[in-house]
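WARN no homologs supplied; continuing
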Amino acid sequence: MEPGNVTQSSEFLLLGLSEEPELQSLLFGLFLSMYLITVLGNLLIILAVSSDSHLHTPMYFFLSNLSLVDICFTSTTIPKMLVNIQTHSKVITYAGCITQMYLYIHFAMLDDFILTVMAYDRYVAICHPLHYTVIMNPRLCGLLVLVSWIISILNSLLESLMVLDLSFCSGLEIPHFFCELKEVVQLACSDTFPNDIVMYFSAGLLGGGPLAGILYSYSKIVSSICAISSAQGKYKAFSTCASHLSVVSLFYGTSLGVYLGSASTHHSRSSATASVMYTVVTPMLNPFIYSLRNKDIKRALERFLGR
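OK structure emitted
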């Protein structure tokens, strides 16, 4: 697009999920409740794991990291949305938008990587149980999480810095409740081809790669479970990864649903509404999935809350 009325913008307008005045109080109450439940639920998981020595294992180390990332993930978008509703303002500064976009990309990607690492952990536990403690040693676990953070930081930094090189026209309205990368890039007057290339390459490599790793891990897990002769053994093996499989299905199911849905409808407001599923609902449900389906977490929470 040729730069027509180019402006050095200092702010964007977040249109949110709805512009109906009568819905604002409902949206504020709903999202405040979901945000508090998300933070409290994931914080309880972290405290339960850290306070119970029986849960100082690779699986729960990764789970506590996932809970921390989920808290950060929702905290990059929801508080600003709540402030805008409460103050009847749609404004977000240019610096605030870039910062929010950077943090959102970072924690979304990190969520993806942590889920992949957890799938690898379950693969080793079920397919190579005798070598589990040797393979999943503390050094490797820490290294896997560290590499996940580094890759996520570098990717989000690259995409955010490329947005800084763009020129924007007037009428900078984002039909979303946060500064989503694709929506911001579409507002640019300058050439966005390099941004599009990096955006889709990143989604394909850093999004599709972990998904392929998860699918491969579970294909091996299913093969190993089918090879178990007793029904009780099969159930016990499957139960160790049922919670993680539920979370992965929820995260990828909603993410792919939003992506494919927005690609077919091209309605940004509908995409914004659907994105609530993986930006808010999924992090909120994760603690419930793990606490309800996992006896160790349930017992640890009962001991922690019973103090």
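The radius of gyration is 21 Å.
OK
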